[in-house]
Amino acid sequence: MSPASPPSPSAPPTALTSRLLDWRVRFGVLALIWGFSFLLIKVGTEGFAPLQVAFGRLFFGTAVLAVALVVKRDRLPRGARVWGHLAVAAFLLNALPFSLFAYAELTISSTLAGICNATTPLWGMLLSLVALSEDRPTRVRAAGLGIGFMGVLTVLGAWQGFSGLDVTGTALALLASFSYAVGWIYVRRTLTGSGTSNLSLAGSQVGLAALQLAVVTPLFTSAPESVELMPLLAVIALGALGTGYAMLLQYGVVADVGPTTASMVTYFIPVIATAAGVALLDEQITWNTPLGAVVVLAGAALTQTRASRRITPPDEAPATLVVGSRSAGAMGVPPARAKPRARGRVGTTDGAPVPGPGSRA
Asked: How far apart (Å, rounded) are the C-alpha atoms in residues 284 and 145?
């Protein structure tokens, strides 16, 4: 999807209105796809092993992105160094978190998994204070970090001693979100300014993650005795829509309204994941789950504030997207802050990426 140029001052009001409506529709579709990714993971694990769900997701996501690369006639990255960094990014942003979320949802609800995914900005800020010397804390951001983790404790019901909570599954979901944050720190330090298009890098990254799980999955799983239709359709949708098509949608939204507005999709994902889990999977939630989720999102939003802004030129923008889910995945990546003029590349003022399915899960 090629970036759209900004409307000229002389553009008729009807054309501008149509264009704004168009990006809002795509924004909504994007939020729905990533929000429903956790439900699709849950359904997928009813017929396949967690590693098989993660591999299928990456396989079908790679297929969609490969078609996009062919249509756009985009080139694959060049250089062993870039491919080496992409292999690490593929593990941290795709293969590992996708697998962890699938394992987590064997024992926890898709609702809880979606809320855990929303903690990625909190982990990202905490890690950036250690790994990125230019990312200085402010009182507001420190408060956001504290508020966010108080929200996590509220979701988990800490005052009840975490009774009724599957500790292992919850820990795996939180570890998946932590992996997203580590992956983005790595991408920021190694792949920024690589000179290759975002689509090429992201497609290569997803393909490498698929290869990684193609090697690992047969070693730890066996082929299912029978293939049920609903789990199979869930895995196909999870990959083709949540890992492939959703990222192409996001390119268009970023091009139309800039990465800052596009990144706001992060805050709709746990809301949609909760609604989908309750309405379609009959998952039960108590009062502390939605309340804690709101607190988590409020804290995550505060961690993205900046005392001062430094605009990153387009040629310094991060060169890839979280691909997946979050859930997926993609999902749950710190919102970006940049002027809309940096179109066609995913830029930020501080190196924080715009979320992607990875989201995200």
From this structure: 28
Q: Give 41-73 pLDDT, tens digit per residue.
A: 999 999 999 999 999 999 999 999 999 999 999
| Secondary structure string (H, E, C) spanning the chain | CCCCCCCCCCCCHHHHHHHHHHHHHHHHHHHHHHHHHHHHHHHHCCCCCHHHHHHHHHHHHHHHHHHHHHHHCCCCCCCHHHHHHHHHHHHHHHHHHHHHHHHHCCCCCHHHHHHHHCCHHHHHHHHHHHHCCCCCCCHHHHHHHHHHHHHHHHHHCHHHCCCCCCHHHHHHHHHHHHHHHHHHHHHHHHCCCCCCCHHHHHHHHHHHHHHHHHHHHHHHCCCCCCCCHHHHHHHHHHHHHHHHHHHHHHHHHHHHHCHHHHHHHHHCHHHHHHHHHHHHCCCCCCCHHHHHHHHHHHHHHHHCCCCCCCCCCHHHCCCCCCCCCCCCCCCCCCCCCCCCCCCCCCCCCCCCCCCCCCCCC
Condensed to tens digits (0 to 9), the pLDDT of residues 290-304 reads: 888 898 888 888 877
CB 181 within 8 A of CB 127: yes
pLDDT digits (tens, 9 = 90+) for 304-356: 776 544 444 443 333 344 433 333 444 333 333 333 443 333 333 333 344 44
Residue 264 confidence (pLDDT) above 90: no
Amino acid identity of residue 313, one-letter, is P
Q: Determine the Cα–Cα distance for residues 340 and 3; give it in Å rounded to an integer.
A: 12
Tokens of 212: 């990684």
Residue appearing with tokens 């078609």: 67
Q: Taking the CA atoms of 106, 107, 111 and 117 in sequence, report the sign of the dihedral they define.
A: negative
Tens of pLDDT, residues 209-242: 999 999 999 999 999 888 999 999 999 999 999 9
